[in-house]
Design goal:
It contains three helices and nine strands; from the N terminus they run ααββββββαβββ. The protein is 33% helix and 23% strand.
């Protein structure tokens, strides 16, 4: 009877301090090793939202130009990393009616958003033959006509392509959005370092 009681007490002892310290040490190592990957994943999820936002605002600008039957301008402001719509019911540039969308926020830092291609990425045209549209005084203006097209001063279709990446993970985050002037439809491309090209 006494031996049964001793066995029962031994079974209820639990972990020793040494065992708890070892478990805590192992957990700490796992967390330290996994933390950079977790942070990178969170950054990529946030930057993917920025990709969708650029495409969404471009599509909205085109749709508004068609529905309002007036030219609507999409502006990318590289200084503030913002997307701005003006024209028609959105008023002239700088008015309170302008629709403004910030690319930063939700985990994306303003300083990490870079316009252009990451170092080492191909400079070749995208699959639809569009290529990087250069900034002009820190901005890019894309004006959609009432039929949804984008034209130059001579009324000829004008293609555009916007390129972005996150400075913290350039190759993994790089993307482009192209617009063929004749139709003005936005198409998203993501950079693949495996083949060194932007793919749909």
């Amino acid at each position: 009877m006494l031996s049964k009681k001793i066995k029962s007490e031994n079974n209820q002892k639990g972990f020793s301090i040494a065992e708890l310290l070892i478990v805590c040490f192992v957990v700490a190592i796992i967390v330290v090793l996994a933390l950079p990957q977790i942070m990178s994943s969170r950054r990529m999820i946030s930057f993917n939202a920025a990709q969708r936002q650029v495409v969404s605002v471009l599509r909205e600008a085109r749709q508004e130009a068609i529905s309002q039957r007036t030219a609507i301008t999409f502006r990318y402001d590289d200084t503030n990393k913002s997307l701005i719509l003006f024209g028609g019911k959105f008023g002239v540039a700088g008015n309170a009616q302008n629709q403004v969308h910030e690319l930063s926020g939700n985990g994306v830092q303003l300083d990490n958003i870079v316009y252009g291609r990451p170092s080492g990425a191909t400079t070749a045209a995208l699959g639809d033959a569009t290529n990087l549209t250069n900034l002009s005084t820190g901005k890019i203006d894309i004006t959609f006509q009432t039929d949804g097209s984008i034209v130059d001063a001579s009324n000829n279709p004008q293609n555009k392509a916007l390129f972005f990446y996150d400075a913290q993970s350039p190759s993994e985050s790089a993307f482009a959005v192209s617009l063929l002037g004749a139709g003005g439809r936005a198409k998203l491309w993501r950079y693949s370092s495996n083949v060194n090209m932007y793919v749909e």
